[in-house]
């Protein structure tokens, strides 16, 4: 071991950070102590409101003007960051500590070409600037760096923009890299590639990094040590492997358990959810911050716990760490919630059938088209999708952003016009326009929206929001509807007092509960759920997924469940459909999808998802390039530009056939079953099954 | 801070109270609000407060400089300037206020429909309004008053015609932003009627912007009424209109500047006051 007087690269001691808001001071970080050694990556995990971004900004001394370091020290390589004048920080920013933000687009000037602004920001000498920039872009594996340098930011995808920023952050060979959710806006397959790049570059150069994220899966893949932040306090810190295998703090355990594993299904078990909500940061608390949500809380938890040192250089802020550590009590929630759900498997009738649905978005007409009275050009968002949903069944639709999954959802509920195709709902034709649908059809077909901020009218109380569908679709009078609102609230586990609140007074999870209650108010036969949990914190997701499942079970409601997260879809769906560039690639029973043979795109998706159970290194299949722009018209298979198993010209020119396997799996590929079986190198589902035993 | 405070609010009246409290948190906006309240008070209770009648001529006291007897002095006809300024408040504020209300009513109605339906209708309405806005407000007002004749009714029509397009554009822009939100889609999926979607779901979102726009329009309307009075096409003599007073005493500015400066000052103070209050309202709602 190193000597006692050894200094780590970054050392944070008892850091308190506060914001001054209209005269009052709110402390959002309390007594945070952390160390980062050279050559290692520390993961900082927390939900929104945990203070994780504040911590990152404090390390950079880049807090907003209301924020200030109230107490404590930050030492970076002999520099007292907490006490340096901002003038001196300028010599540290970029050269010693670099920052990669969450949203790359806001860090690039939209009106200057990428190459020029990178050269300018890095103070490159004009003579060799071009060559340097190109070289820099090559280090971050940007395909066609010349083209990137000549592009404006909006012409690049999010993944490419993020690579440009990483290139800039790495240029001056800083000793410490602070990454604030650098991949959370990216698609799964792009995320995998960017993440691998970051890790390789950091390790090659012996840099240290702080990786701020809410995504535990990524931490598992990337970080050496992990710190769990909760309501401004460090709850647990230690080596990643140990924390993931044997979490000590009940919160860490709860977080880890609430994430559905890849291949886990509702027919096996309920998700273990964390109840309650994170306390508002800055609220003075006595006692343990987590006690209101903790199933182990006892009398002593009314007192504020210290950070207790465990063996193996770990710390935990739990009074009962010792009992948990020795295995005397279980920090896992009781198994009462993991009773398997019995599902009836009667012969079911199809309730929704869509056939050859196509959606085009017309582009703004050019002057030439206007003069020549030509039809405007179109972007195809959905190209000939066909599927069926049976009574009570949940169909999961998985795809990356821009794959057309939300458009498809809007088509089914009637908010989006189609360019072709037919739909049948409950054995009669479903008109594509909302005006053509009867009130009874509306009642049977409801939707839960993605963005919880926009799904509820900010000027209406919860009561009004829930009362309207009862009055409108079920024809109840005001008094009866008012009474039923209370039943609805109860069904989504909200107390009656929520009726008087406005949406701004609810947390994201509570808002989504209200939105779910609204959708179920009319007892629909089919529910369309468009990414219902992706805007929620990890600890809340599980509870909302369980709720959705319960509501569905109670009413026998079928659902189209849309998500980009294969693990979430895998958990809730009976059948999964994979969509890419507006076309289905594969349709299979949920458990079959995770078994070989895999469609090449599904395999890439499965491989890109980090597994939480074990460190599986990096995605075995790295997709080349980016999803082609929707403006590009592709012949043949839509996936041929990125497919790792491309056969040759046939894939570029001919539409692949739909193949059906004995298991019921249908897929869209030129490669036949035997061929795919040989190509499917890994068995993702088996990996999981083995671990369970 | 306001957001946090609103978090504890349970009804819209609480919300209103919080916004009012926020108005008084800033020195500039509290000055504005106090000025507005003061002039509103004067326009209601003016006749009871004014020491003399608006056209009461005291020939012996003509052209007197400010004194205890005549706080703002007297004009060339021996009328008490202080009384005339106080009594002038009612006409100017009620004309401007009523005109603004009419403009807000039609503006928000047209803006809502135009923004929600979009397409050809929107295109036609907006181009029409563009051409109206291309003319300077004063020119438009002079043209209209030329045909309508100078009367209070004419002034009312002028203010509404000049400001309806501006209010409509502001409301339309909020509607364009709001109509794509998921809660509007949810209302459509519930089979809500068009009227309910427009007025129950979308309209409340325009209120903050509308409140600010209305108060700004109000201050410009005061200015417009006074300017038209000054040009002699607005309120007609012998009404104690501020613009008219400035016009009438302009010829004597060297001998009795008070007769011009006090009414001119009243215009300035009221316009600045309303502007400050509007600005404070905008900031209070923005924080919210």
Q: What does this molecule look like?
A:
- The complex is a heterodimer of chains A (693) and B (288).
- Chain A is α/β, with parallel strands linked by helices and 693 residues long.
- Chain A has 25 helices and 24 strands.
- Chain A has four domains: 104-172, no CATH class; 241-338, no CATH class; 350-576, Rossmann fold; 594-692, no CATH class.
- In chain A, the strands form four sheets. Chain A has an eight-stranded mixed beta sheet with strand order 6-7-8-3-9-10-12-11, with helices on both faces. Chain A has an eight-stranded mixed beta sheet with strand order 18-19-20-15-21-22-24-23, with helices on both faces.
- In chain A, strand 16 (420-425) and strand 17 (428-429) form a beta hairpin.
- In chain A, helix 3 packs across helix 4 (126-139) and helix 18 (508-520) packs parallel to helix 19.
- Mean pLDDT of chain A is 85; it is low at 336-340 and 687-693.
- Chain B has 288 residues and is mainly alpha-helical.
- Chain B has eleven helices and no strands.
- Chain A binds chain B through residues 21-22, 24, 413-415, 434, 439, 442, 445-447, 449-451, 454-460, 468-469, 472-473, 500-502, 504-505, 515, 518, 522, and chain B through 1, 3, 6-7, 9-11, 181-183, 185-192, 200-201, 204-205, 207.
How are the SSEs placed, and which strands pair?
The complex is a heterodimer of chains A (693) and B (288).
Chain A: E1 10-21, E2 24-36, E3 41-45, H1 52-59, E4 67-76, E5 79-80, H2 86-92, E6 97-100, H3 114-121, H4 126-139, H5 145-149, H6 158-171, E7 176-180, H7 188-205, E8 208-213, H8 216-222, E9 225-230, E10 233-239, H9 240-245, H10 250-258, E11 308-310, E12 314-316, H11 321-325, E13 350-362, H12 367-371, E14 378-390, E15 394-398, H13 405-413, E16 420-425, E17 428-429, H14 439-444, E18 445-448, H15 452-455, H16 462-473, H17 478-491, H18 508-520, E19 526-530, H19 538-555, E20 558-563, H20 566-572, E21 575-580, E22 583-589, H21 590-593, H22 600-608, H23 649-653, E23 658-660, E24 666-668, H24 673-679, H25 684-692
Parallel strand pairs in A: 3-8, 3-9, 6-7, 7-8, 15-20, 15-21, 18-19, 19-20
Antiparallel strand pairs in A: 1-2, 1-4, 4-5, 9-10, 10-12, 11-12, 13-14, 13-16, 16-17, 21-22, 22-24, 23-24
Chain B: H1 2-8, H2 12-23, H3 27-49, H4 81-117, H5 119-134, H6 137-148, H7 152-178, H8 182-189, H9 194-231, H10 242-249, H11 258-287
Helix pairs in contact in B: 2-11, 3-4, 3-11, 4-5, 4-7, 4-9, 4-11, 5-7, 6-7, 7-9, 9-10, 9-11, 10-11
